[in-house]
Design a protein that fits this description.
The complex is a heterodimer of chains A (236) and B (324).
Chain A: E1 4-7, E2 12-16, H1 26-40, E3 44-50, E4 53-58, H2 65-78, E5 90-95, H3 105-112, H4 116-125, E6 127-133, E7 140-143, E8 158-161, E9 165-169, E10 172-175, E11 180-182, E12 185-189, E13 210-215, H5 218-223
Parallel strand pairs in A: 5-13
Antiparallel strand pairs in A: 1-2, 2-4, 3-4, 6-7, 6-13, 8-11, 9-10, 9-12
Chain B: E1 7-11, E2 15-19, H1 39-47, E3 57-61, E4 66-69, E5 73-81, E6 85-86, E7 89-90, E8 95-99, E9 104-106, E10 112-120, E11 156-157, E12 184-190, H2 199-207, E13 210-216, E14 220-224, E15 238-239, E16 244-246, E17 254-256, E18 263-264, E19 268-272, H3 274-280, E20 288-293, H4 296-314
Parallel strand pairs in B: 12-20
Antiparallel strand pairs in B: 1-4, 1-11, 2-3, 3-10, 4-9, 5-8, 5-10, 6-7, 6-9, 12-19, 13-14, 13-20, 14-17, 15-18, 16-17, 16-19
Classes of the chains: A alpha+beta (236), B alpha+beta (324).
Protein name (chain B): Allophanate hydrolase
GO molecular function, one term (chain B): ATP binding
Domain Carboxyltransferase (chain B): 28-310
Chain lengths: 236, 324
């Protein structure tokens, strides 16, 4: 593995580990992030992992681009993927899969002549990787979904996607941490609070985590504090 | 405890936001940076009052804001000329001034530039979230009330302190005042997917005039001009630095600013230098700008020069402002 360094301004390098999405690079990215935090210490301003890259922003008053590059290259030379927890922690997310909170469940089912239950079972059957957080605080981009579950984004985004919605776009899946406009296909809802600025850690998921969705009943969903109001379809 | 005088918002205008140095160490959670769009003018607004470089200033975009002092207040105004006046008397930017109880500070139509920065002693009080009061509406963080919302009619603004030792100069020396009336030449450090752009497009990017689009906000500023063609085989979203220039399939560049999304999947032409970001933040809709290729060394040198001028003036260390 020979990651490539690309300039991203006077105080940042973008480190590219591969050209296309490749689950095999995730342990390397996890290790790189961990080792970078140690190597840069207080000179690190931001570390933003995303799929195949990590953006490393440093304090330009303390380090110039050559100095920062040297630190990054030393980290890359010495890193070992497995010893630094390269596999990521496993997080379980309970989901109530139901057409009332996941209107596209039936759409996906219809494509294959499946029942909504079969779609839910397929979604919950695999373990997913958190590649990046973005879009809104705590929104985790996870993959890869099996090709049968892949769905293009909605032609017209919904104005209001309820908080906790479990969603699919292409071969990725996610959970909406807050109510927001959004164009992903909804298949269910989790009672888990995915982002809370007053909590440590603030996000339930972090880049590098592995995720498994656990199918739960409506009763369990409500007992866990979930809001079972159906998705409101507002005309765009 | 002495009561700190307040500034009452008589009329809020379209967009006035509290901004400090910004939010850091949280980008990997999907949380944006925030902070003043024009760090240069905001830095001077703080320097004139002897504030910390990252103290909270009020970013006034476009104008239309009207404030009334409820007691004597020492303030500073830097950045755009938004036809500011005190009790109807013209107030030029780049200076420190005092309001007496009952004085009315009003902002009108932009004469030059887009964003003015109003400083208060010790910075304006806000409700911090994740270590910053930077006001980001879509995340609901920061601001004077802690809900990420801009100033509203009837709101109150309070400076952190009633008074503090002030620098000897009460205005920014003319040689340090940028002239937003001059055509903007924005420094770009090539990087990202530069090599995948069509040769003719690269030529045009750095030679054609670009027009600032109406689609311009704190997330990003779009430029209109020749269609830039990029032959990248397929991008995967990547972390976005401040000033990153993304080119979506329509070929019209978007310069990503303080409230940008944390990751993005369009090819990048390069990154605006810190000074170019500050300058672009003051460009009005329809204004013509040019992109000029530059290198890291030069951009760094120019940035440090500008920061050191601000820092030496206020007699404080500039390091804390290093996150531009």
């Amino acid at each position: 593995m020979t990651p490539e360094l690309q300039n991203a301004g006077i105080d940042a390098w973008l480190v590219r580990f591969s050209d296309g999405i490749d689950p095999a690079v995730q342990p390397w990215i996890n290790a790189f992030c961990q080792d970078c935090r140690t190597a840069f210490g207080g000179l690190l301003v931001e570390l933003v992992p995303s799929y195949t890259t990590v953006l490393v922003q440093y304090d330009p008053w303390q380090l110039d681009d050559t100095g920062a590059r040297r630190v990054i290259e030393r980290v890359l030379d010495q890193m070992v993927p497995d010893s630094s927890g390269g596999g990521g922690r496993l997080v379980e997310i309970p989901v109530w899969y139901d057409p009332s909170v996941g209107p596209e469940l039936e759409l996906i089912a219809a494509r294959h002549g499946w029942t909504p239950q079969q779609v839910a079972a397929a979604h919950a059957a695999s373990e997913y990787q958190v590649f990046a957080l973005g879009f809104v605080p705590g929104f985790a981009f996870m993959g890869m979904l099996s090709p049968e579950l892949a769905m293009p984004r909605l032609a017209t985004p919904r104005k209001k996607v309820p908080r906790g919605s479990i969603a699919i776009a292409e071969r990725q899946t996610s959970a909406y941490p807050q109510q927001t406009p959004g164009g992903w296909n909804l298949i269910g809802r989790t009672p888990v609070v995915l982002f809370d600025a007053n909590r440590t850690p603030m996000t339930t998921l972090e880049p590098g985590d592995r995720v498994r969705f656990i199918s739960i009943s409506r009763e369990t969903f409500i007992k866990l504090g979930g809001d079972a109001s159906p998705v409101e379809e507002v005309a765009p | 405890m002495s009561v700190v005088a307040t500034l009452r918002v008589e009329k809020a205008g379209p967009l006035a936001l509290l901004q400090d140095g910004g939010r850091f160490g949280v980008r990997h959670l999907g949380i944006t940076q925030g902070g003043p769009m024009d760090w240069h003018a905001a830095g001077w607004a703080n320097a004139l009052l002897g504030n910390d470089p990252g103290a909270a200033v009020l970013e006034v975009a476009i104008g239309g804001l009207r404030l009334v002092a409820e007691a004597e207040l020492t303030l500073s105004l830097c950045g755009a000329d938004l036809s500011a006046s005190v009790n109807g008397q013209q107030l030029r930017p780049w200076q420190r001034f005092t309001l007496r109880a009952g004085d009315r500070l009003a902002f009108g139509m932009p004469r030059c530039g887009v964003r003015a920065y109003l400083g208060g002693c010790g910075g304006w009080r806000g409700v911090p979230a994740l270590g910053s009061v930077a006001c980001v509406g879509r995340e609901g963080f920061g601001g004077h009330k802690g809900d990420g919302l801009p100033l509203d009619d009837g709101d109150q603004l309070q400076p952190e302190v009633r008074s503090q030792p002030l620098p000897s100069y009460s205005y920014v020396p003319p040689e340090y005042q940028p002239d937003y009336g001059q055509p903007a030449a924005l420094g770009v450090i090539p990087g990202g997917q530069t090599a995948f752009f069509d040769g003719a497009s690269l030529y045009e990017a750095f030679n054609a005039p670009w027009q600032v689009d109406t689609r311009a906000d704190r997330m990003g500023i779009r430029l209109l001009g020749p269609e830039l063609v990029c032959h990248h085989p397929g991008m995967v979203s990547e972390g976005l630095a401040a000033g990153a220039i993304q080119v979506p399939p329509d070929g019209q560049p978007i310069c990503l600013m303080n409230d940008r999304q944390t990751i993005g999947g369009y090819p990048r032409l390069g990154t605006l230098t810190p000074l170019a970001r500050a300058r672009l933040a003051q460009c009005q809709t329809g204004e013509t700008v040019r992109l000029r290729a530059t290198g890291i060394e030069r951009a760094r040198h120019e940035y440090f020069g500008a920061q050191k001028a601000i820092g030496s003036f206020q007699g404080q260390k500039t390091c804390a402002a290093g996150r531009g």
